[in-house]
Amino acid sequence: MQSPIEQQKVAAALKTLDISIGNLELLREEMQASLEAMEIIEEQVLHQNEKLIKERQLYYNLFKFAPNAYLVITTQGIIKEINYTAAALLNMLPSLLIGKPLINFVSQLERPLFRTKLNQSLNVKSVQEWEVSICPRNSQAFDALLLVKPVRDAAKTQSLLQLCLHDITKYKQTVKQSQLAASQQSVSNVPVETLHRLDGLHILFVDDEADTRELIAAVLKQYRIMVTTVASVTEALSELERSRPDIIISDIRMPEKDGYALIQKVKALEIEKGWQIPTIAFTAYLGEDRAKVLGAGFNSHLHKLAEPMELIAMIAQLTGRG
User: pTM, whole model, 2 decimals?
Assistant: First the structure.
């Protein structure tokens, strides 16, 4: 027979056991409720994932079949994604372009400048405008405008560039034809004394695009201006060793050495030889910084889409023949 003390201990143990069983039952109910809640959350997550997958597929299809040419490249120029329109411009299947360097389709002369732009792309947060000559596979080259935006990939581990590619060959031809037509029309209305004031001026025009050189030379010659055209900074410096022009007009964006390199050489020559040659920066880039151009040493700045009379007026003003 148990003593009173032993009976008290048994009773206390039974009470503790009842409390533990109650706690376990409460815990089981809480776990059951948590499992039910997790099942609901899991179902919601699965539903959300399905929705995201459908949306991703929708946007992927919009990208793939968009009427505009889009592609995504690394900062080394490797193609990561490309849609059918862009692939058609490069004259290859999209699957064959993934992993290939985009620079393979850039003209040989412009590749050094294209590499420089790739290296500098991460330092620019806004949308950039790049104008390059694209050489599709087994097809004719065309003038292209690239709208470039730096982004991060989905995992935020790699920097990428989103590109929108436009063939602007016909646009540039149309603009140049209209400029030439406008110039031919306007020159017929220019007083004879104005033509005489410009008569005999010698202009050195620097641009890597042959059709631009031909157009500007044709415009200037109508005003009895003597024009020497060259395709590079190196050729321009060689020409400056032979003669001193009354004015220099130079493109800014050129492969190898650009217009900024030329103006530095011109300023050095002016100090060395006591010259003072007015200079005009002539650019096709809408985003070209006018303050940067003038700060580099150019006397004036003009966009290539400006009317021919604007160029003539600028030449007359800079040479004192206005």
Answer: 0.55
